[in-house]
Amino acid sequence: MTAARRSRSELLLGFAAPVAAVLIALVVASIVLMISGSNPLDAWASMWEFGTRLETSVDAINRAVPLYIAGIAVALGFRMNLFNIGVEGQYILAALVATEVGTKIDLPGPLHVAVIVLVAMSVGAAWAAVPAILKVTRGVNEVIATIMLNAIGVSFVAAELLGRWDSAGQDTRTADIGESGHVPGINWLLEIFTRDVGKGRELYGFLFVAIAVGIGYHVLLTRTVFGYDLRASGANPSAAEASGVPSKRMILAAMIGSGAIAGLIGLPDILGELYHYGGDFSQGLGFLGIAVALLGRNHPGGIVAAALIFGYLDASSPILEVEGDAPREIVTIMKGVIIFAAVVAYAVTERSRRRRQVAAAADAVPTTSTEIGANP
Amino acid sequence: MSERGLTDAALPGSPGRVDLAHLWKQRWFRWPVFALGGMIVLQLVEWIADPESEELLSGGQAGAMLRWSVPLLLAGLGGMFAERAGIVNIGLEGMMVLGTWFGAWGSVKYGPVIGTAIGLLGGALGGLLHAIATVSFGVNHIISAVAINIMAPGVTRFLADEIFSGYAGGSISQSPRVASFGSVELPVLDRVSWLTIIAFAFVPLAWYVLWRTRFGLRLRAAGEHPSAGDSLGVNVYRYQYAGVVISGALAGLAGSFIVTELTGIYREGQTNGRGFIGLATMIFGNWRPGGTALGALLFGYADGLQLRDRDGVHALLLVGVVVLAVLALRRALSPKRTVVEVGLPAVIATLIVVWYLLRDTVPPTFNQVTPHILTLVVLVFSAGRLRPPKGAGQIWRKGEH
User: Fold this and answer.
1) Does B377 touch chain A (CB under 8 A)?
2) Which domains does chain B carry?
């Protein structure tokens, strides 16, 4: 009975923290806007009005799809206590190579897409395997290794595009992927419920892939032996090792899996809208993925909410400049504040939860209560 | 808690014995030998690669190396102060970005000297934010830093739009031109900025502060074994705050230096990942000021050469070959050699030679990644000799350990 109440209050806390984070971000952003001489209420009103339009929602979801995949890629590492800071480099490299392969081949529709997806996943996995192997064989910290590999990967991509610029003499981008390699939009799905989507916007068909990735992640972690082992080694590596879970193999698996998912991040944009890799390809999604995974607490549902919040912020911010209310960069500040407020709130609630657990355990076994507080 | 864990200065050798093996163990002896060896290699490469390059070992190149190594040095020292206090700071990049904007704004308004101070404060503000999150609230260090790295460019872009847009020549992505710090004529190196000299003066200063003062001992105690420090009455939180704020200030100074001394203008994205290279510099330098300076000079050399002499970069590949060959040879001669350790450098060296012979130029981005590749090589090959502070990255709560 009390346990049930406690778990319910914990659940409530779990929801309250991110909501509070968003509210705090709104307050901070309002203050910043007021200091800079803009009227925050006008800004929020136009963002709300613009953001709730159907076309903006399509933009927001299209933006949320890669963010969601990025969040899942990061979360998979997090569950194993691994920081895959390298998602950034993995997806950029994977996007370039997969696009390049996609332009070279010509296959019937679904097969063409499948090949591109497979290439992207393998490149992401291979680039993530480097820090994983360095970690298990040489004990190199994965954060440092992935930061270095990000720079190497991104600069390889830049060199590759720059080389193109030298030879072709005009544009720094790859050729276009053929028609058969495009993933069709799914506006029809929206139009069942609402009116026609205007302005040539297409809801990415890749949305289904993102959903599948989320379900796959959830099933893998909660319904398979492998997922159990992964969570166990993440929570307590020595206990897991003692019960026969090889931690090195888990590190390799988690990192390579994370990289394979990371390889998908660039594809919604490339296969759904751009059809090439070039200067207009958005970078930084890997780092935002870390933020999204955190805000969503590594939970497949929570990450959906987090990705949508970030997607809506991005999609509805351009109106600020059109209306002249405020610089749209206020949205980046808001994202930063949201992350900060959320992680601080999580850290505080987590600590109070642990303290309550310790207290509860102490109540249950009064004779040993003094020893429980005195951890090594 | 024993003193030995904290003071790892070289042990004094027995007096009277002057043999080479002993001398070789002394750092003051080894480093000039390395430097001399490096210069000889560069000279040799210059002859071999002639007439491709005459810039590898010129006074102008030395000056460029010095200039371009300063941001890396300052960021590296910044990373060192934070990690020595136990807080990992991969937010250096974001703090450097803050430094570029605040430095430019201060310089436009009050001239380069006060501007530099404002840039430093801007970075320190980033450091303070990192400290509040990690030290006071126990947030994971990497997470807090990632948030700072995401937020900083947004903040500066917002501020640039609000303020620089009002100036002639300024916009959302750049400032009007800013004046530079004064400079002094030195032999060989040409004109050297006072700020460069100040930055290099930080190297012995950082060493002195960290290893010869009470403040430094306590700061390192917080980074090595916070609970032990705490039990002796050290206010761990306060020293961690100090370390991270100093770290941010140095990163801010690095950003400000880029604006006033290297480019003369604030431009969006101009740090170009140098904060991360600073982190690499610190690791390369084994979390020590002297090593960090060496790493900064090495990486700055590549950065500077890139701008002065494209062909020189091509010739520099040969230097890489020599270094790798020496590495492979040393491994081959050591009793504990493994196939991988000897084979890998040898294979890489062969690949580079092939590349050198096949291609006339090196992609311009190659230089930007030399620090990253070198750092990975160092991490892989001398992981055993690196000694990061033991408590770095650990979230320490008073009374909970």
Assistant:
1) no
2) 31-55+309-386 (no CATH), 58-306 (1.10.3470)
